[in-house]
Specification:
The structure is a single chain. By secondary structure, this protein is of the alpha/beta class. Helix content is 31%, strand content 22%. It contains seven helices and nine strands. The strands form two sheets. Strands 3-4-2-1-7-8-9 form a seven-stranded parallel β-sheet, with helices on both faces. A two-stranded antiparallel ribbon has the order 5-6. Helix 5 (151-159) links the parallel strand 7 (138-142) and strand 8 (163-167).
Length: 205
């Protein structure tokens, strides 16, 4: 990202949450290469066998100016870091010291439970927790993928005042998840993958 973009990054965004499935690893590489080194803490749920998640995190770390790592229980969420869900049978969620979008330090939480929207970890589970804990201080991004996981969660984030973005059909491998979110009116922006980082970091039109 150009230095001008880095200087103008929004400082009122406390967290970015990303969901992806089929074609998502490739989409994430395009998205994260344009992130700033000091980007807001970013949580990612990518539908993948958890055994492969550490290798995916290493691949993404090679292209992202920020540090990409696997999320762990109670890990503090800090600027300049991207956290990938990797724990089998656990949903990746977020917890604020003060809930309801009122502020407080943010931490990753790994929650055992049943699949949500057919998946564990689930994008809907992540997005729902971000809506409840971070509210209008968050950005939600739903990328390529089959099915509907993330659509209802993105709607919850939108209703909580978050800035919400869906990948457009022309750049999706599978348009299922973004299409479902768009049909619910959950996305405030629909954009090609190579423009999403700009919308997320600057909330630019």
């Amino acid at each position: 990202m150009a230095e001008e973009g880095r200087r103008s990054i929004r400082r009122d965004t406390r967290l970015i949450a990303v969901g992806s499935s089929t074609g998502g690893v490739e989409a994430l590489q395009v998205l994260l290469r344009d992130f700033a080194e000091d980007c807001p803490p970013t949580l990612i749920v990518q539908h993948v066998n958890p055994r492969f998640a550490p290798a995916i995190a290493r691949t993404l770390d090679q292209v992202c100016p920020a540090r990409v790592q696997v999320a762990a229980q109670d890990m503090p969420l800090r600027h300049g870091n991207v956290y990938l869900a990797a724990e089998a049978d656990c949903h990746l969620t977020v917890k604020a010291a003060m809930s309801g979008g009122g502020g407080g330090a943010l931490h990753a939480r790994l929650r055992r439970g049943e699949p949500v929207s057919g998946h564990i970890p689930s994008v809907d589970a992540l997005f729902a927790s971000v809506a409840a804990e971070v509210g209008s201080g968050a950005v939600g991004i739903l990328l390529t993928g089959m099915g509907q996981d993330g659509a209802r969660g993105l709607l919850a984030m939108s209703r909580a005042g978050a800035h919400t973005i869906a990948q457009d059909e022309s750049t999706c491998t599978v348009f299922g998840m973004p299409r479902a979110a768009i049909s619910l009116g959950a996305a405030s922006v629909v954009a090609p993958i190579d423009r999403i980082a700009r919308h997320a970091l600057h909330q630019a039109a």
